[in-house]
Description:
alpha+beta; 3-stranded antiparallel β-sheet; single chain
Amino acid sequence: YISFCYFYTLRKNNKMKYLSYKQFREGSEDSGNYGHAGRPGQVGGSASNNIKEIENTTFTDKLLKEQGMIIKKDGTILHPNIKGNKYAVEIPEKMLADLKDNIFTHNHLEETPLSYGDFGLFMQYNILEMRAVTPTATYIFKRPDPAFTDEEKYEISHLYNDLIQEYIHTQNKGREPKKADPYRKMMEPIYKELSEKTRFSYKKEPR
C-alpha cells in the first residue's frame, strides 16, 4: 500500500528504499548507486534521552553517506546504524514496523531540509518524529497527539503537493529545483505553511 504524493517505496532484495516522485516518474528503479542497508543494531541498547546528543555524536562531518537511526521516545536506540548512500537511507523491510510511534533521525550531507521521501515516510508509517541533521541545522517533523486521521493525511498530502506545484510553476519556471540552495528555498516555506494550516508540525533548529 503506497500513498501520498512524492513517495515511492522500492522492494529490492527484501529491502525498501524511498525515492523522489521525479525519480519514479522517470522510470528509474535504482536512481544512483544505493549502498546496502546495515545490520540492525541490538534492540534495547540504552541511550541518552537527549536526542541531540545522540545525533551530534553519530552524525559527524566524517560521514560520506547518509545514515539513519530509529530511537524510542525514552531514548532507547532500536536500530543505530541504518546505512544508505549520498542521497538516501535504505531501510530494510523488517525495520519498517519499528518506525511507528518512534523517532527516525538521519543526516543530510548537504544543507537541505527534509525531502519528499522523508515526508512520505513520516506520513505513511505514522512516525512520531522525523529529523534530518545537516552540517548547520536540524529539520524536524512532529506528529500530533492524537495521530493524524486518514482524512487528515489525505488533506495534508494534497495541500503539500499543491504547494509544491504552485511554487514550481510560479517561482521556478516549471522546473523542479535540483541544487541544495534553491531546493531549501522552496521547501522551508512550504513546510511552514503546512504547519500553519494543519496539525502538521515543522521546525528548524541550529546545531
